[in-house]
Amino acid sequence: MKQITLRAIEPEDLDLLYRIENDVELWNVGNTNVPYSRYLLHDYVANCKNDIYTDRQVRMMVENQAGEVVGVADLVNFDPANCRAEVGLIVLNSYRQQGYGTAMLQALADYAQRILHLHQLYAYVDCENKASLCLFEKAGYKVCAKIGDWLFDGAKYRDSVLIQYVFQKKCD
User: Fold this and answer.
1) CB half-sphere exposure, 74, CA atoms < 13 A
2) Is 106 part of any domain?
3) 138 has which bridge partners?
């Protein structure tokens, strides 16, 4: 498996975040469908506490062994009462199909279980996004619900699945 590091967002990441957040091709796979200004992203980087309990989310940059940013990993919609969070990941185009997505999901799972003590992670995945479905299923996520007409791409509604990873309790 690829060796990666999750790290906090730095001001130097602003240009990359700007490109990612304003990439129209990514809007259909996430919950964002509007452009973000540099000012808004700068404000986010400057003011987020990087504390999931305060912000109810944490966004981390993902680096490979050479120190190159290969993607972004998010835990959002953090629900401390029910010990769960929604997963979001972006693997940059030039690093796709190289094992980084699998490594990112594993690193997020380790962080969520060992540091945050979460019970589960979940994601909503477009039924037509076969690469993402395969990635999550390979990482042990299970499809638990199909949701009709969940995503709108500007022209038509598409079905989505709720995919979930529940951490197994360890026996002593």
Assistant:
1) 15
2) yes
3) none
Backbone dihedral angles phi then psi of residue 78, each to the nearest 5 degrees:
-60, 130
pLDDT confidence band for 49 (50 / 70 / 90): confident
CA angle 1, 12, 104 (to 5 degrees): 20
- Decide if 91 is inside a domain: yes
The distance from CA 62 to its chain's CA centroid, rounded to whole angstroms, is 11
Residue 132 Cα distances to 29, 102, 128, 169, angstroms: 9, 10, 9, 26
Tokens of 104: 């990112």
* Mean pLDDT, rounded, for 76-92: 96
Model confidence band, residue 105 (pLDDT cutoffs 50, 70, 90): very high
What's the pLDDT score for residue 33? 60
Q: Which of 92, 75, 69 is nearest to 23 (CA)?
A: 92
CATH classification at residue 15: 3.40.630.30
- 122 neighbors 164 (Cβ within 8 angstroms): yes
Structure tokens at 82: 């029910």
In which band, very low, low, confident or very high, does the pLDDT at 29 lie, cut at 50, 70 and 90? low
Model-level pTM?
0.89
